[in-house]
Amino acid sequence: MIVKSDNYFNQIKEISDNKKVLLSKSPFTNTIVYLESDKVLGFLIYDVIYEKVEIIYIFTHKNCRRKHIAYNLLSYLINEVKEKDNITLEVNIKNNSAISLYRKFGFKEVAKRKGYYNGIDGILMEKKL
């Protein structure tokens, strides 16, 4: 089950591999969680600022990868914000599985960010809605 909720912050904090991103919350931030038996298996954090959506962080618990959790979260998000102009995100140039997933949803590379991930380049991707 997927729900839009901030009520699972403690569970998200436990499974996340990037605690820093969880601390920077703004009034524009939203969270979608993938639940199974009320346990968080994955989540997606995104900002909505006027007509633009930016994916901040998408994560699947390490024991639950390759089970379409990220796919389902992204699908839910796209349906949730379909009246907006676009969705953007940054992805590590070496994260081939994530890049492949984003391309399946129609995200296109729009720019490279030199050294964005501790010296490793990032790719800025966009999906027009």
Question: Which features does this protein show?
Answer:
129 residues, alpha+beta, Aminopeptidase, 2 domains, seven-stranded mixed beta sheet, 4 helices, globular
Layout of helices and strands, plus pairs?
Blueprint: E1 2-4, H1 9-15, H2 19-23, E2 29-36, E3 39-49, E4 52-60, H3 69-80, E5 86-92, H4 96-104, E6 108-117, E7 120-128
Across the major sheet, the strand order is 1-2-3-4-5-7-6
- Please outline the major beta sheet: 7 strands, mixed
CATH topology term of the largest domain: Aminopeptidase
User: What is the count of structural domains?
Assistant: 2
Structural class by sheet pairing and helices: alpha+beta
Superfamily (CATH H level) name of the largest domain: Gcn5-related N-acetyltransferase (GNAT)
Average pLDDT over all residues: 92
What is the radius of gyration?
Answer: 14 Å
H/E element sequence: EHHEEEHEHEE
Number of beta strands? 7
What is the top-level CATH class of the largest domain? Alpha Beta
CATH architecture verdict of the largest domain? 3-Layer(aba) Sandwich
Low-confidence stretches: none
**Strand proportion:** 35-45%
Q: What is the 3D form?
A: globular
> Helical proportion?
25-40%
- The termini sit apart by 24 Å
The number of helical segments is 4
Summarize the structure.
The protein has helices at residues 9-15, 19-23, 69-80, 96-104, and strands spanning 2-4, 29-36, 39-49, 52-60, 86-92, 108-117, 120-128. It is of the alpha+beta class and 129 residues long.
Could you describe the 3D structure shown?
- The protein is 26% helix and 44% strand.
- The protein is an alpha+beta fold and 129 residues long.
- Strands 1-2-3-4-5-7-6 form a 7-stranded mixed sheet, with helices on both faces.
- 22% of the residues are buried.
- The mean pLDDT is 92.
